[in-house]
Amino acid sequence: MVSRPERPLRLPRLRHWRDWQSLAFLAALPALAAWQWVHGFHWLLYGAMLFLTLGVGVIHHNHAHLRMWRGRWANRCIDFWLTLLQGHPTFVFWPAHVANHHRHRHGPDDAARTYRFCGDTNHLLGYLLHPLQAASVLYPVFTAWLRRLRRPWPGAWRYCMAQYALWLASWVGLLALDWQKALVFVVLPQLHGLHWLLAANYLQHAHADGWPRPRGATLGYAHNFEGLINPLLFNIGLHTAHHEHSKAHWSALARLHREHYRARVEPVLNERGVIVYMARVFVVGALMPRYRSRSLMSPNSPPLC
Question: Where are the domains of the chain?
Fold first, then answer.
């Protein structure tokens, strides 16, 4: 009997070398939380943790579009690691984001379109409420998708349920160990990251045009933010290029934006930076109307609510 030659052990390979930045974020966040759990609260380290929760949300998003590794098991490990760090299962990006938001591009069938919630707004209250509003309409999308998945794809359904089980078990275990530390160093940072994950939709699309435009017309469905947000947070500000090339690696978006989309987007949607934009529209605009944004939605559009 001839024995089969043993396959050499192959280490997983990253799809793109720039994802070492992603791995650094995924390692630094729990390290800072663990250090403070043992040694006590430090405001500078806690501030760094809150920033890292933003990065984890973007990595979660990027990994849903283009898997980080070239191996199944490495990607599954990242799925579970992101579930633990994000405080929510990773599978939700498929039904809520890829199959919904990217399919409909802020259009009238997009479940979490910003103008769905009684008016085409772009102000501070709308920004603060949007994560709660979006969650209220997206959770039925998750549950309906899981119901449809269960019979034809039971293995995939169990994989999604395992993510829920891991997340809930981590909360129960850490709260039982020390509920005060768990709230401060785990739960609150996760909720902060989830807020920004959902609120990003408002920043990227509020007052943009959610209705289809003729071929060749300017692109008006998303804001783009240039500046430091992009090297720090994986080019998350370059939203039009991402929508047009959802399978492109995040490191390619700066070139795509610069060479192909910046000139094709409505000029008012290209912003220098997200902090400047938020300060102008949400704070100064509340006091001085000339600094408020103006909706690009056509006045002849069907009712928004």
Answer: 19-212
